[in-house]
Amino acid sequence: MDKSLMQQISLVTLGVADPARAKRFYAEGFGWAPVFEMDDLAFYQMNGLVFGIWDKAQLAEDMLRPAAAPGSIALAHNVASREAVDAAISRLLAAGATLLRAADAPPHGGYRGYVADPDGHAWEIAWNPAWAIEESGAITFAL
Amino acid sequence: MDKSLMQQISLVTLGVADPARAKRFYAEGFGWAPVFEMDDLAFYQMNGLVFGIWDKAQLAEDMLRPAAAPGSIALAHNVASREAVDAAISRLLAAGATLLRAADAPPHGGYRGYVADPDGHAWEIAWNPAWAIEESGAITFAL
Lengths: 143, 143
Fold this sequence. Notes:
The structure is a homodimer of 143-residue chains. The first copy, chain A, is globular, with a radius of gyration of 15 Å. In chain A, the strands form two sheets. The first copy, chain A, has an eight-stranded mixed sheet. A two-stranded antiparallel sheet of chain A has the order 9-10. Chain A starts with 10 loop residues before the first strand and ends with a strand. With 143 residues, the first copy, chain A, is α+β, with helices and mostly antiparallel strands. The first copy, chain A, has helices at 19-30, 56-63, 82-94; strands at 11-16, 36-38, 41-45, 50-55, 73-79, 98-104, 111-116, 122-127, 132-133, 139-140. Chain A has a single domain (3-140), classed as 2,3-Dihydroxybiphenyl 1,2-Dioxygenase, domain 1, CATH 3.10.180.10. Chain A has three helices and ten strands.
């Protein structure tokens, strides 16, 4: 068995039907300011992790899973290299995860795949060379 | 409008059908060690936040929402007082959230309510006097 992964959640992404409405809600309700936004998404730098809202159809396409099953949300665990993505996904599958998307390179760079835990909760396992992972596990958004 | 809430996620809780199976998966797959566990739940100290798995029927009962709608998961935002829970929930409702559970005191102490964002994603707004909130927003599990 590979060594343990850091106890770290890198990103929580909520799929949303109307990104403009969701951005308004998080601005007016929580008062949160995005660190980066586009028409269909926004990222917020949080306490050691990143929070994201993303058009739910695009999130579903990225996960290769229907938007509604079992909830349009993805947690992400980032690792330090492409090889570590493959190793983590192998380890998770051996422990009972289901493969949603075999790891490949997304349009924005890096490398990522998706698995579902035994209850269907989606985890993205990603290498994003732009996002630093501190020794504490803290993640900082960057382009 | 009240002042902004910290950009902070305190807790991510996944509802699970079989807590023993989920604990095994997170131990064997991710290699994560809980900071606290009972038969029906486990908490893991992460990078500035807490990750939880909880029997999905109990999570649904706590949220006052059916387990499957739209996914058995709750994000939590902790605040520093009981009054701040009420203020945050009022603010979120004014911004378009839907009330799931009006704030009250759970059996383990503190004070919490639940709202759903415009896409139905559940947020618990909680005051937990045992869990420190650092200036950075980092949350540390404690009993």
